[in-house]
């Protein structure tokens, strides 16, 4: 079994079992029917109940103290501590009972990587702090990653769904506002946190899920945030640390409606110096540069949930098909960009229907230079052959919904896909022209476990917890994997 969830926590488990036994004892005590009790018998049973209740309270107090001592930070403590929270934490045990537990829902929406230091950050949504994974160096190499936090200012810490996606550049972490009323700007050397206020017009008509991702301009002086429910592009000036709104030119599209939600996702830099928003429900592609923002390409109609972000390879952006049955390709090697759609050849063993929704919501480039999309609601993996310009499916990954969103290429030539509702890590072999899929591990069954992640300087992969209680760490083999894939060469554990 490749999953190495090294369970200690034995003391904690035993305490919980004892606690449950005591509760069950109380539930049956005094419920037998028969002759009335004598006065001294009644007093004796009442005394036993009180003593049992006291023991139960004492054991539960120890359980709560043990649970609280395992938290990464006290800001993750949700009061009152409930048995459901403790039971969920029991599914995230580690070998040494490390105090890196993060209970709570929708804590982070994506991650960000600092290429200079190798640090990995969680973008705080409901979390009241910023998750930091710092590399620990010894004798010139990284031995492991140590979790820590940077606290958020109290005036915004309690806000829900604050930021979605982040960018690290020149020693600063920038996070894109989702429901937040400010852009997050963090000096990673000093841990100074700044909140850059949004333009006044945003406060007058503020919506949830305002922007979904963003990208930097070629000069690395500004971030342009992609409007999902917002009606404008948000520009973040990284030099002056100010924000402004950019109007979107839709004059060539009389059917376009900027008031609909879920318009564009992404924020992908093209080779032409522009940043592109991928049409999800919007009717056309969004193109942004330092001169402004405009829609380009064909009109696809509204409300179709077409594509969900994308990846740029060799100057062409390939958009992930959500409800669409084609891959959208934006060739930015020419100006204006050349836009086309590639049909998807579904293999014979597929059980999916043509109208399947939420098929693929992310992807990664394999060691062979092709793009691979893990199955979300569909049952198969999508492969985009860059040279042949063809799209096909392969493998079988199960029929459940929202299994994986996105993945990371590892040093063994395999892509490891980030489990959302999936109870396994999906491994996709991408070398030597032979594709094989493998399901690894046995993960908790609850929803939306991890979102986003990065490869560390130790060669391991780190997935950021959304509803999961800990960071998920994948240690792949140190050399290229061969096929058939082995069952024992990957280590999966909680940090």
Structure description:
The strands form seven sheets. An eight-stranded mixed β-sheet has the order 18-19-20-21-25-24-23-22, with no helix packed on it. The protein has a five-stranded mixed β-sheet with strand order 13-17-16-15-14, with no helix packed on it. It has a four-stranded antiparallel β-sheet with strand order 1-2-3-4, with no helix packed on it. By secondary structure, the protein is mainly beta. The protein is globular. Among the domains are: 1-28 and 42-103, no CATH class; 346-352 and 362-495, Methylamine Dehydrogenase, Chain H, CATH 2.130.10.10. Strand 6 and strand 7 form a beta hairpin. Residues 1-37 have low confidence and may be disordered. It has helices at 10-28, 39-69, 83-89, 154-157, 200-204, and strands at 108-113, 120-124, 129-138, 141-151, 163-169, 172-177, 182-187, 192-197, 211-216, 222-227, 233-237, 242-246, 248-249, 264-269, 275-279, 285-289, 292-296, 307-313, 316-321, 326-331, 338-345, 364-365, 371-373, 381-385, 390-394, 404-409, 414-419, 425-429, 436-440, 450-455, 461-465, 472-475, 491-494. Helix 1 (10-28) packs antiparallel against helix 2 (39-69).
């Amino acid at each position: 079994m490749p999953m190495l969830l090294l369970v200690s926590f034995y003391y904690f488990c035993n305490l919980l079992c004892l606690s449950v036994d005591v509760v069950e004892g109380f539930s049956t005590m005094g419920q037998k029917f028969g002759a009335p009790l004598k006065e001294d018998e009644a007093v004796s049973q009442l005394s036993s109940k009180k003593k049992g209740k006291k023991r139960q309270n004492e054991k539960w107090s120890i359980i709560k103290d043990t649970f609280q001592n395992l938290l990464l930070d006290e800001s993750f403590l949700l009061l009152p501590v409930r048995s459901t929270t403790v039971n969920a934490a029991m599914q995230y045990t580690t070998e040494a009972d490390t105090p890196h537990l993060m209970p709570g829902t929708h804590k982070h929406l994506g991650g960000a990587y600092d290429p200079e230091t190798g640090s990995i950050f969680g973008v705080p949504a409901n979390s009241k702090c910023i998750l930091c994974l710092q590399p620990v160096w010894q004798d010139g190499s990284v031995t492991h990653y140590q979790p820590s936090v940077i606290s958020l200012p109290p005036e915004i810490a309690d806000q829900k769904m604050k930021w979605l996606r982040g960018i690290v550049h020149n020693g600063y972490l920038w996070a894109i506002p989702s429901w937040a009323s400010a852009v997050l700007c963090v000096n990673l050397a000093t841990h100074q946190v700044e909140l850059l206020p949004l333009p006044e017009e945003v406060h007058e008509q503020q919506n949830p899920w305002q922007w979904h991702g963003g990208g930097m301009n070629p000069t690395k002086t500004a971030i342009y945030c992609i409007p999902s429910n917002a009606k404008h592009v948000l520009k973040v000036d990284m030099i002056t640390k100010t924000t402004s709104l950019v109007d979107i030119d839709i004059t060539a599209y009389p059917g376009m409606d900027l008031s609909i939600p879920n318009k564009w996702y992404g924020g992908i830099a093209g080779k032409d110096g522009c940043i592109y928003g991928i049409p999800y429900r919007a009717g056309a592609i969004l193109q942004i540069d330092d001169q402004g923002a405009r829609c380009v390409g064909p009109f696809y109609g509204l409300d179709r949930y077409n594509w969900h972000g994308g990846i740029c390879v060799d100057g062409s952006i390939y958009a992930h098909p959500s409800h669409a049955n084609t891959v959208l390709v934006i060739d930015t090697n020419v100006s204006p960009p050349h836009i086309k759609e590639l049909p998807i050849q579904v293999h014979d063993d597929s059980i999916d229907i043509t109208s399947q929704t939420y098929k693929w919501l992310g992807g990664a480039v394999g060691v062979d230079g092709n793009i691979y999309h893990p199955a979300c609601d569909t049952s198969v993996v999508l492969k985009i052959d860059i040279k042949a310009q063809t799209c096909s499916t392969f493998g079988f990954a199960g029929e459940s919904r929202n299994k994986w969103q996105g993945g990371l290429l590892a040093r063994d030539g395999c892509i490891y896909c980030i489990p959302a509702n999936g109870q396994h890590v999906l491994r996709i072999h991408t070398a030597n022209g032979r594709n094989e899929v493998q399901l690894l591990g046995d993960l908790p069954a609850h929803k939306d476990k991890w979102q986003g992640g990065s490869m560390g300087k130790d060669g391991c992969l780190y997935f950021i917890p959304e509803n999961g209680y800990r960071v998920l760490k994948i240690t792949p083999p140190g050399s290229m994997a061969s096929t058939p894939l082995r069952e024992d060469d990957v280590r999966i554990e909680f940090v």
